[in-house]
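Note to self: the last two entries modelled the partners one at a time, which told us nothing about the interface. This time every component goes in together.
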Amino acid sequence: ETGVTQSPTHLIKTRGQQVTLRCSSQSGHNTVSWYQQALGQGPQFIFQYYREEENGRGNFPPRFSGLQFPNYSSELNVNALELDDSALYLCASSTRGPSSYEQYFGPGTRLTVT
Amino acid sequence: QQQVKQSPQSLIVQKGGISIINCAYENTAFDYFPWYQQFPGKGPALLIAIRPDVSEKKEGRFTISFNKSAKQFSLHIMDSQPGDSATYFCAASMIGNTDKLIFGTGTRLQVFP
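The predicted structure of the combined assembly is written out below.
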């Protein structure tokens, strides 16, 4: 069974630029959630994708957007980067269902905005 | 009402001791309470989780105690080991909704030999 993978591992961008982060879900999982974890804080929910559609969104502005592909992998796009966007971005995969709700996290992408 | 409050912020325990981390929540609609362990530079790893229909769940050295009336739950690590040194996060969610996890602020555990 393949775990959740994310790429790239680290990324440095300049304020105002755009960035795309990628996530491959764990084998058998059809749902992907994205979280932002600032240094020393708990992860904050950005949004979730299920069946290639956004299925819930946290308190993040529209410049945070995403995609889910037919193979359940996902992208997180952030436009007009701000310094406060510097964080660890985590992807978690799960399987939607009445008895399936465990979310498994990838290693994250460390984004630094200068 | 969406918050999950976690304490203590940091914890130092001697090897072999018991580590106890506490969390409290307000939203009574939460029905899934996982604990995650995170090592520096890594993503959170699911450690153990509980549903509100039971008051305790044990897996190896890790036990969750759940008090529905007090809206509190805690993680107990028995026989703490230096390898347990990590940051621990409690979380809560409403299954069947977006399943989004609301995380606590984390507890940094250090276990000294």
